[in-house]
Design goal:
Blueprint lengths: L7 E3 L20 E5 L12 E5 L9 E5 L18 H10 L23 H19 L18 E2 L14 E7 L8 E3 L2 E8 L4 E8 L5 E9 L18 E3 L2 E8 L2 E7 L5 E9 L11 E3 L2 E6 L6 E6 L5 E6 L10 E5 L2 E8 L2 E5 L6 E6 L10 E2 L3 E6 L5 E6 L6 E5 L9 E3 L2 E5 L4 E6 L5 E6 L9 E3 L2 E5 L4 E8 L2 E9 L9 E3 L2 E8 L5 E7 L2
Parallel strand pairs: 1-4, 5-31
Antiparallel strand pairs: 2-3, 3-4, 6-37, 7-8, 8-9, 9-10, 11-12, 12-13, 13-14, 15-16, 16-17, 17-18, 19-20, 20-21, 21-22, 23-24, 24-25, 25-26, 27-28, 28-29, 29-30, 31-32, 32-33, 33-34, 35-36, 36-37
Helix pairs in contact: 1-2
């Protein structure tokens, strides 16, 4: 959609034509996008910022580009999409911190009638266009911006990936992953983001890959030293997935016996870092950050007295804290809209807890879950489904209004993998390698099958198919309904997988390892 008012970019007196479409339409609010370039002397080369300012009535919206050697340029019209694709590719590398361009049909270009150096018109125009696209529409509709996807429920609404693949079939690229981690891929704004950790020369950080080619764009080390001396084989020093929102990357690490949350810009530049809680671990830490409005929320339950903390996205300043009891717990909470309001839902400490995400106030609690949980709750709108594994293994359905208590329970427990709600059914993967399907309404077991040796990865749903990746590196593709389910494909990549798949743009991204003589991790992109 093209906004009827033409935005005004000011950097001197030279008119710079830019082609972009405003979707959603430009709104008179304030936001900032950090821009970085590797080209010396280029606008933005020293970390400039695009700032979208307020508009007065009957005035055009304005955008100011600030940075070394940059003044003001009025933006008159737009035409960068008319440039050849090879030029656009070059300019995309120049403005590589932004999503790939959107190409529009060629048309008359106002730049041809504007005085000034042609090279600067085309190149700077493209750069500004990329910045505006990233600023106004930073997420694509089928991105996978956080743990378990857009809704943190394992469901993809975009094009499904292939159902079959191998080293020779439907494999677009494979990239080595330095270090080790069990965090799942996050796909946003043309990047694939992972966390990783190194045991030798101990350090923890974030990796960014180009989603199209698999090229490593950057690595940002956030912590050095201070890693826990011993972990179980099911754990890593980089188990929590990142979250992407509003052009920022948020990540949480256990470092020096405390949970630290960091915010990065799209180029991997550290914006802020905050210690949110001391943390005493039995195994590791795996709480992926949760985004809600202007907040980033982190769960830090542990046996010496945990807490849930909400920080402001822009500054890291603490907005609210909910102190918790003394119990070991490893969940990644979720925001669900229930009873016409958004609620933060988390389990553990023998309770299912609903919290107002704006202020940290407890809305309701229901006894039923076990003490230690790992999974992220899911819902069908009527029930909230949770599971736990210590000291009691179970799956429970609890009334979503917080008043009806426990609706049903099953002793066929799910400990590590989070579950899926699929067309009136609840689908779960057991650590022991079985898949179990329950009727969501009453908990009747509909189907059970031994698929593999062990599961630690959570399943995802795309195009009516369930993709379930086992520890062995085999992804089992399931299809069915009611009591009739079947495995329609089995796909092997590597021979070890703890991370959950991510689905975006008709592709599936997998973090698997090859053990052999020396363990190596890889990021794989599968798609047609």
């Amino acid at each position: 959609m093209t906004h009827p008012r033409q935005p005004l970019l000011t950097v001197g007196a030279l008119p710079i034509p830019v082609d972009f479409r405003l979707n959603p339409p430009l709104e008179p609010h304030r936001s900032t996008l950090t821009f970085a370039s590797r080209r010396a002397g280029a606008p933005g080369a020293s970390g400039s910022a695009f700032t979208l300012g307020r508009s007065e009535p009957r005035q055009r919206p304005s955008l100011r580009l600030s940075g070394r050697g940059v003044n003001r340029i009025p933006l008159q019209s737009s035409c960068w999409a008319r440039r050849r694709s090879d030029d656009a590719s070059e300019l995309h590398r120049f403005a590589g911190e932004f999503p790939p361009p959107v190409f529009f049909p060629p048309r008359e270009c106002p730049a041809d009638r504007v005085s000034g150096p042609r090279v600067m018109r085309s190149r700077l125009g493209c750069v500004i266009g990329f910045g505006l696209l990233a600023l106004l529409n930073p997420l694509r509709g089928d991105d996978w911006p956080s743990w378990r996807g857009p809704g943190r429920d394992g469901r993809s609404a975009g094009d499904p990936p292939p159902r079959e693949w191998s080293e020779q079939l439907n494999l677009r690229w494979r990239a080595p992953v330095p270090g080790r981690g069990h965090s799942s891929p996050v796909v946003a704004a043309g990047k694939v983001l992972l966390t990783t950790a190194y045991d030798d020369d101990p350090r923890q950080g974030v990796l960014a890959y180009d989603a199209e080619s698999g090229r490593l764009l950057w690595e940002k080390i956030l912590h050095r030293g201070g890693l826990e001396p011993s972990l179980s084989r099911q754990a890593s020093h980089a188990s929590a997935s990142v979250a992407w929102d509003d052009g920022r990357i948020f990540v949480a690490f256990l470092h020096q016996r405390a949970i630290h949350v960091s915010a990065l810009d799209p180029a991997g530049v550290l914006l802020w870092q905050m210690k949110v809680s001391d943390y005493v671990t039995v195994r590791a830490y795996g709480g992926s950050p949760l985004i809600h409005g202007d907040l980033v929320i982190v769960n830090a339950d542990h046996k010496e007295g945990g807490r849930i903390v909400a920080l402001e996205k822009t500054s890291g300043r603490e907005r609210w804290v909910l102190e918790r009891g003394k119990f070991q717990n490893y969940p990644s909470p979720v925001i669900l809209k229930l009873d016409s309001r958004h609620q933060l839902i988390t389990a553990g400490g023998n309770m299912l807890t609903s919290v107002d995400p704006l202020n940290g106030r407890i809305l309701w609690e229901v006894a039923g879950p076990t003490e230690t949980t790992v999974t992220t709750p899911v819902t069908d709108g009527r029930s909230i489904f949770i599971s736990g594994g210590f000291p009691r293994s179970h799956v429970s359905a609890i009334a979503a209004d917080g008043k009806g208590g426990v609706l049903w329970q099953s002793g066929s427990g799910i400990y590590v993998p989070s579950m899926l709600v699929v067309a009136g059914a609840l689908v779960g993967l057991q650590d022991t390698g079985r898949v179990v399907v329950w009727r969501a309404e009453d908990g009747e077991e509909l189907w059970r099958e031994k698929l593999d040796r062990e599961f630690f990865s959570s399943p995802v749903l795309a195009g009516g198919l369930i993709y379930a990746t086992a520890l062995s590196g085999v992804t089992h593709v399931l299809q069915g309904s009611g009591t009739k389910w079947s495995v329609v494909a089995r796909n092997q990549l590597g021979d070890e997988a703890f991370a959950s798949p991510a689905v975006a743009g008709g592709r599936i991204y997998l973090r698997h390892a090859r053990q052999g003589g020396q363990r190596e991790e890889f990021l794989w992109c599968v798609g047609k």
